[in-house]
Amino acid sequence: MPHAPASLENRTAVITGAAQGIGFAIAQTFVDAGARVVIGDLDVDAAVAAAEKLGGRDVARAVGANVVDSDDWDNLLSETVSWTGSLDVVVNNAGITRDATMRTMTEADFDLVIGVHLKGTWNGTRKASAIMRQAKRGAIVNISSLSGKVGMVGQTNYSAAKAGIVGLTKAAAKEMAHHGVRVNAIQPGLVRSAMTEAMPQKAWEQKMSEIPMARAGEVEEIASVALFLASDMSAYMTGAVLEVTGGRFM
After folding, report:
1. Beta-sheet strands, E only, within 5-133
2. pLDDT-derived band of residue 2, with 50, 70 and 90 as boundaries?
3. 0.85 exceeded by the pTM?
């Protein structure tokens, strides 16, 4: 029997920032689809706990990694390949926010957000590509944001980084296409998480009023799109940016 097209059977995926939130939901969805998963996260203890929750050492491992550091990436990917012998999927999900208006934002908070999102995704994309091109196959999924499409007040750093991920994804997709490596991006809208639920009620209601489907997304709804892009179901897609937003700002 051939594998179902959405299967990740016998494939290995690295997901950054997967100790919680959208990243953890992606890891769970990938494990359910048959993948072995490596969680790369700055918070090693949280990553280890997440790997245990996913089923422990046979299906999930944790490796401490700061995505801004290219040596950390080398270590993360070499640990992965030495565990399973392959690197099939990389999801660049790690991210942070340091929201403030342009007038009050510090240069340090601008550099930090650009570093984690944009440089981190660049590191992950180039390091993964170098390994995947040898196998002549692989899928890279970069997590952008609706903020990178429309720009959000108080997020000049985050919006710039997330827009940059789109440009990076398209450029990398063109470079890697003839090597059999696909690079695509997801732009989530308002997704229910610990971070968004801490938002002031008024801000939440304002965002909800902009969503034609009249509800927030769930982390699993981002994860299923990541599975689509990681699997053979999207075999003829590269350089694509999929908005998962309930129709907000279409």
Report:
1. 12-16, 36-41, 60-64, 89-92
2. low
3. yes
Measured CA to CA, the distance from residue 15 to residue 24 in angstroms comes to: 8
d(CA 125, CA 85): 19
Please say if 236 is a catalytic residue: no
Type of residue found at 114: I
Task: Give per-residue pLDDT as tens, 201-247.
Answer: 999 999 999 999 999 999 999 999 999 999 999 999 999 999 999 99
Q: For 177, which DSSP code?
A: G
Secondary structure percentages of the chain, helix, strand, coil, to 5: 50, 15, 35
Determine the CATH number of domain 11-239: 3.40.50.720
> Domain spans of the chain?
11-239
**And the tokens for 126?**
């180039």
Question: Of 80, 96, 100, whose CA–CA distance to 12 is shortest?
Answer: 80
Q: Which of 48, 158, 160, 234 is catalytic?
A: 158
